[in-house]
TrEMBL record:
GO terms for molecular function: glycosyltransferase activity. This is Glycosyltransferase family 4 protein. The lineage of its organism: Bacteria, Pseudomonadati, Pseudomonadota, Alphaproteobacteria, Hyphomicrobiales. Keywords: Transferase. It comes from the Bacteria. CDD domains: GT4_ExpE7-like. Gene3D superfamilies: Glycogen Phosphorylase B.
């Protein structure tokens, strides 16, 4: 029987193509293919859309089943939507009109931690499921769980530890933040984590283990479409795919490339992605590194999602050098879908997706020398490259993943693994 599913994210992939938004939208379409009526609701602020007088909603896309909710009045510390007079009545009207059987929430950023409570108050019988994609409820530092001073990885939050990162915020405020978020998130029926690592972090934070299921992310069918392999003659080619920012390890990768070039190693590195909303200092640093490593390092710029399979298929190895606890980067799955090995940092969900010496190589985060050494192995050992590529782990397709979610929603039988 067809059910109504409201898929909610903190943006829309057409405006901000981050991994969470992309995955949420892919899943939304998969629910529709499975025969359910789905509506996609993306929250935005003034970065991407200006407010329109008289309504909180704006249209996006030609099909009428995707809408934006302007949520510009947002308290980032308490993860709270403070525009109660405009936001809540409009959201309540949408819920009453669409009458979802399930609300699948992918983030509380912009939407606010009050969102599940609004759903429960408006539609008491509606099932609320939240996929956890990062650590925003746990960590005020943009959900990174990285210390603000020396970019040291953080292994757990506490009021005193968080105060050490933000000296202007007293410990009791952090204690209040934690109580506030846990109370509001308690309204959610069940949680999903795409990695065991992320699940453990939330269990340690205080969410009961039996409330969190682990369901791996999936990819759309086009991610598995392979074009003709590039010629294997010539120098090995590496690829980076994603936004350029400090936490993705952009500078670490460029510094590793500079070391290899200084040692006279022949290779090519194609860096795909833009650097939106980054500081002038970071932009200046990477501009300098790109200049120092050209032409072996090529800055290819932003790319379309539909082109990523061909772009990955055109390189020998993908590099994911993130220095924070990445949960389950889609780019690793996209590389594996193309039979490409991955060099990744050995932390977080990355360490679950890439097994050192099996389907890729893992290195310590924020260590250009170790990253350069791993890249050098790929360059100098063609047999190793072929072995790692041959053991690539095919990820789930998005329809299989949707089937697992629908089983969690109790809307259909679980598909075979």
């Amino acid at each position: 029987m067809s059910k109504r599913i409201l898929v909610v994210a903190h943006n829309h992939p057409a405006l901000h193509p981050g991994g969470t938004e992309v995955f949420a939208h892919d899943l939304f379409r998969a629910y529709q293919r499975a025969g359910h009526e789905a509506l996609f609701l993306g929250a935005v602020n003034q970065v991407h859309r200006e407010a329109r007088p008289g309504t909180s909603f704006q249209a996006i896309g030609p099909t009428g089943d995707e809408i934006l909710l302007w949520a510009g009045h947002f308290d980032r510390f308490f993860m709270s939507q403070i525009d109660l007079y405009g936001f809540v009545p409009d959201l309540t009207e949408l819920l009453r009109e669409f009458q979802p059987d399930v609300v699948h929430l992918h983030h509380i950023l912009l939407m606010g931690a009050e969102f599940p409570h609004i759903v429960r108050r408006t539609l008491p019988a509606c099932k609320i499921v939240m996929t956890l994609h990062d650590y925003y409820p746990i960590c005020h530092h943009d959900g990174l769980m990285v210390r603000t001073d020396k970019r040291e990885l953080c292994h757990g939050s506490s009021p005193d530890r968080c105060h050490a990162c933000f000296k202007d915020i007293k410990p009791d405020r952090f204690a209040l933040r934690e109580q506030h978020l846990k109370a509001l998130l308690n309204t959610i029926d069940s949680f999903v984590a795409p990695s065991e690592f992320l699940k453990r972090r939330y269990v340690e934070w205080g969410i009961a283990e039996n409330r969190i299921s682990v369901i791996a992310n999936g990819l759309p069918s086009r991610a598995f479409e392979t074009s003709k392999d590039k010629s294997k003659a010539g120098r090995p080619t590496f690829g980076y795919f994603g936004n350029l920012n400090p936490w993705k390890g952009t500078k670490v990768l460029l510094e590793a490339a500079r070391q290899l070039i200084g040692d006279g190693v022949d290779f090519e590195l194609r860096v795909h992605g833009g650097a939106p909303f980054q500081s002038p200092e970071f932009i200046a640093d990477i501009e300098r590194l790109f200049s120092e490593t050209a032409p072996q390092v090529q800055r290819r710029g932003s790319y379309r999602r539909e082109d990523v399979a061909a772009l990955i298929g055109a390189v020998d190895c993908t590099v994911v050098p993130s220095i924070w606890w990445e949960n389950a980067p889609l780019v690793i799955q996209e590389a594996q879908a193309q039979g490409r090995p991955v060099i990744a940092s050995n932390i977080g969900g990355m360490a679950e997706l890439v097994r050192n010496g099996v389907n890729g190589l893992t290195v310590a985060p924020n260590d250009p020398r170790q990253l350069a050494a791993a890249m050098r192995q790929i360059i100098e050992k063609p047999t190793l490259l072929r072995q790692l590529a041959g053991r690539a782990v095919r990820p789930d397709d998005i329809d299989t993943t949707a089937g697992r979610y629908l089983a969690l929603f109790n809307l259909q039988q679980v598909q075979a693994a």
